[in-house]
Amino acid sequence: MPPKKEQRRIIGGCFVRLGGLLDLGRLACALERAQLPIFMSKHGDKVRLSVQNDLFMGVPIFYYFETDVGGEFLAYKNAGETEEVHLTESATTPSYIYSPVIHVLKLPSILEHKKEFHQKFLAAQVADLPSLVKLATYKMLYEEPPLPVYCFKNGTSWIVGSFARLDDYEEASLFFYTRIKEEPSAGFIKYSPSNLAETGFSKRTDEHGHYYVKVIKLAEKHPLVEF
After folding, report:
1. 110 C-beta neighbours (distance < 10 Å), count
2. How far apart are CA 154 and CA 140, in angstroms?
3. DSSP-assigned beta bridge partners for residue 202
């Protein structure tokens, strides 16, 4: 048997700002078997809503958006080409998916945002969008939700990519990406194994014969990705 790896201690947090509340709702709710909890905390006169969605080299990664007011639940709905998200005090409307909002009074000081990261994800460029989506959807073979795809502007182009582990250890994670010329036009990418030419951005997630991955827009370049 291979030697057992030592448990890595938490060495600090990474907080990545999202493009909007809709991106937070899509990340926490869309295409998930169980919605991700949202942590709410006060930051000055703003309310920060964050989702912890990865761990790398002892650094938990939180994706967040700041608003003026909070709530008890985040309500999300994607019907046809319409996508909605808002904060609410109760989860009572069946047409919405709800993510619970956890009120956090104080986080451990170790989880404060680190200003510098000595270890970063290595980036691997793939040929095109179909190659990226095939990577993001491979877990669906094991009845797991697809990996989210993150996008952010880098120079004159947009980076669209996903974090994937090569084995069970976080040290083996890579950021697989491709470059596109314009900002993604919708919050999802559709993909058909029988017709790769149809791969593209979509507002819908209900067309028969297609797989879907969600696209999460970041406000700026991901701080843990090194090209």
Report:
1. 13
2. 30
3. 188
Residue 149 contacts residue 160 (beta carbons within 8 Å): yes
- Confirm if 211 and 190 have CB atoms less than 8 A apart: yes
User: Residue 23: helix, strand or coil by DSSP?
Assistant: helix
CA atoms within 13 A on the CB side of 28: 33
Q: Which of 142, 137, 148 is nearest to 193 (CA)?
A: 137
Q: How much is the pTM? A: 0.91
pLDDT digit string, tens, across residues 83-139: 999 999 999 999 999 999 999 998 888 887 777 788 889 999 999 999 999 999 987
Segment 20-63, tens digit of pLDDT: 999 999 999 999 999 999 999 998 899 999 999 988 888 899 99
Which residue in 186, 227, 170, 168 sits closest to 14, CA to CA? 170
DSSP class of 29 = H
Going by C-alpha positions, the residue among 137, 162, 157 that lies closest to residue 225 is 162
DSSP code of 218?
Answer: B
200-202/188-191 β-pairing = antiparallel
Backbone angles phi, psi at 23, to 5 degrees: -65, -40
In whole angstroms, what is the distance from residue 194 CA to residue 135 CA? 16
